[in-house]
Amino acid sequence: MIASPTIAAPRRKTEPPRILVVLDECERELFFSGPLRDRLSMLVPEREWLCPDADGTNLAAALLKVRPQVLLGGWSLPDIGEDVLGECPELAYFCFVAGTVRGRMPRAFWERGGTATNWGNSISHTIAECALTLVLACLRQVPRFHQEMHIDRSWRAESDTPPRSLFNRRVGIHGFGNVARELIKLLAPFHVEIEAWSDPVPAGVFARAGVRRARCLVDLFANNEIVIDVEALTPATKGTVNAAAIGALKPGSVFVNVGRGKVVDEAALARRAVQGDISVGLDVFETEPLPADSPLRGLPNAVLFPHTGGPTEDHYPLCAKAALDNLDAYLAGRPLVHPFSLEMFDRAT
Length: 349
Fold this sequence. Notes:
- Helix content is 35%, strand content 13%.
- The chain is an alpha/beta fold.
- The chain folds into two domains: 19-122 and 313-347, NAD(P)-binding Rossmann-like Domain (Rossmann fold, 3-Layer(aba) Sandwich), CATH 3.40.50.720; 124-304, 3-Layer(aba) Sandwich (Rossmann fold), CATH 3.40.50.720.
- The longest helix is centred in the C-terminal third of the chain and has 17 residues, at 316-332.
């Protein structure tokens, strides 16, 4: 008697993760135009894309209906509170196409084992470029000459303080993340001497980057002609650039901030700037938009940008590519690039 062959039970195909895309029309055009939109559409059909209501009502409904394991969102994504998150136990990966994840996903998501990514270091170079622009604009006295040439229709007076160059200056950097590292590269052709400070960063990290570690924040401000702030905002860093640090800037110094406005005591900075003995270049402020009556407005020694240091129009696709590369990696079971951990959540802006 011939034994019947054993027939293995057919393997059940694993269903692909359910994905919900939450982007408004502006974000779709900025981040996902042309081939990038086609690539996203191949991964997630556009019928599964959501344009969120301002109050997040339709997002909560969509999350409960779709039960996504993956959520891809942008700036328009409303806050997902712990109550809504608790109704979505399947959600395991948050792919954020922009930067700041605070106010989008609660800490409980990471506590329960969730994984997240943001734009990582994909646009750190454009923020560093913005910082360099502000430094050069301050040294070359751009706001003063703009006033004289365009508004007053005058010429420079013989008594005017002449513009200065960036070459061979002493530069201090407050903060030492991705933007600081990109900034060091951009500063290299100017042959500057760089010192840096960020309280939790070990001295060896600065040494490997070829920069000195300042003894403390006040020393950083006192010992450098140009100080650039790129520090993240955390409970520990809020207001740390205080009156003492600002007061330590020597006359003729330049202070630039492209990090976060609330790291700086803006009232103390305004008082010093109004004196006219330092120049400031600011892309971020304590309150945004900057109030119309801010004492920083109208100063001939202040260059002010309306928080545009992040991705420029031509670099938004880099953020989308980083998101799609990570989404591809997640779906294929490969490691993610620049995953956003719970530790990073706790010390990020």
